[in-house]
Design goal:
Blueprint lengths: L11 E8 L16 H6 L14 E4 L2 E13 L5 E11 L6 E13 L7 E5 L6 E6 L1 E4 H6 L2 E7 L10 E5 L2 E4 L4 E3 L3 E6 L10 E3 L6 E5 L5 H12 L21 E3 L4 H18 L8 E6 L16 E6 H17 L7 E7 L1
Parallel strand pairs: 15-19
Antiparallel strand pairs: 1-3, 2-3, 3-4, 4-5, 5-9, 6-8, 6-11, 7-9, 10-13, 11-12, 13-14, 16-19, 17-18
Helix pairs in contact: 3-5
């Protein structure tokens, strides 16, 4: 905590608002340099969601938000205060450490609020505070150095995934006056063995990650199968019949399924289709490849026939399956978590 805290003023602080509104970033000074996530959040290419209470998920482990702080006092020497606040939270999928950067850019300060004391706090439910715990300073000091940081250690929870959700929100305190809390955010920490038997980690489950396959990568036959299922579903087996024949659709947004018996049921339903295609495919060194994957709620046993199955070379099937397993681990995809699938050249 830096700076000398001024005494409480006699003028009345009549408004202190935390507004999620778009603004243009001021030119960065030579030093200090914006942390990478703060720089991204202030980039001219940042989506409009960075200026909403929900904020912007740059990735499964990075979240930020841009906002405007406003305050005014009435009475002798009435003053006004406007500043811009950017908050960036970074989690780790490989441990329970969470880092937060905050940048304050002073826009204007007049009268009784020409040089107030501004303190930033960040309550985090269930977290253990680390070495960096925010900052309090006079406005002139914030103008010189507009940065503050926080460090936390998240905790895992109960249930099969040992998952716990941690809610946090920035808190801005001006001249020891009215406390105004920013919109709430949330990240999740887990020790799920469906992800890793040894590694714990934290992510933003609100972010929907993309499992991206490349046609020229290993497991090419499986990737081409996924590509056909997504882009040409009517060319796949089982055929779509009935009044809406020729209008088969197969989802690209899926939800992970970890229940072993339900996974086996998905595999059995897919194998019936593969056997109908070639009753001797296993003797040829092939396996039954299915999309959506058997480890998803949308698998072949769902009952709506919105899936595709075909025999492919066993090594190709195993390679694509390894990519899927690595994806689940890297993004800590737990049971029921949503993700999408895409194929690139």
């Amino acid at each position: 905590m830096g700076g000398k805290r001024p005494s409480v003023r006699t003028a009345a602080l009549v408004v202190f608002a935390f507004l999620a509104a778009g603004f243009s970033a001021t030119p960065a000074s030579a030093a200090p340099t914006d942390p990478p996530l703060i720089a991204s959040c202030l980039s001219q290419h940042v989506p409009s969601s960075a200026y909403t209470p929900a904020g912007w998920f740059e990735s499964r482990t990075e979240w930020c938000r841009n906002s405007t702080l406003q305050a005014a006092e009435v009475g002798n020497g009435a003053g006004e205060f406007v500043a811009r606040a950017t908050i960036g939270v970074t989690t780790s999928p490989r441990d329970l450490h969470v880092h937060v950067d905050v940048k304050i850019t002073v826009v204007s300060a007049t009268g009784t609020l020409a040089n107030p004391f501004l303190e930033i706090q960040l309550p985090c439910g269930g977290c253990t505070p680390g070495a960096a715990r925010g900052r309090g300073a006079t406005l002139s000091e914030w103008k010189t150095n507009g940065y503050a940081s926080f460090d936390f250690v998240g905790k895992t929870g109960g249930g099969s995934d040992k998952a716990a959700k941690h809610k946090f929100h920035p808190r801005f305190i001006l001249n020891q006056g009215i406390v105004r809390d920013g919109a709430e955010g949330m990240f999740r920490c887990d020790a799920s063995t469906s992800v890793s038997k040894t590694v714990q980690g934290c992510v933003f489950p609100q972010d929907i990650p993309t499992l991206l396959y490349h046609v020229l990568s290993k497991g090419r036959d499986a990737v081409l199968h996924i590509q056909d299922a997504l882009n040409h579903p009517n060319s796949t087996e089982p055929k779509w019949t009935g009044e809406d024949a020729g209008k088969k659709t197969i989802p690209r947004f899926l939800h992970r399924l970890v229940n072993p018996s339900k996974q086996r049921a998905n595999a059995r339903a897919a194998k019936k289709v593969c056997l109908a295609i070639d009753a001797h495919y296993t003797s040829k060194g092939e396996e039954c490849d299915e999309y959506p994957f058997q480890s998803t709620e949308e698998g072949a046993n769902k009952g709506d026939k919105r899936f595709s199955a075909r025999p492919i070379i066993a090594s190709e099937n195993s390679s694509a399956g390894g990519t899927l397993s690595a994806f689940y681990a890297s993004y800590r995809i737990l049971n029921g978590d949503e993700f999408q699938v895409a194929v690139a050249p």
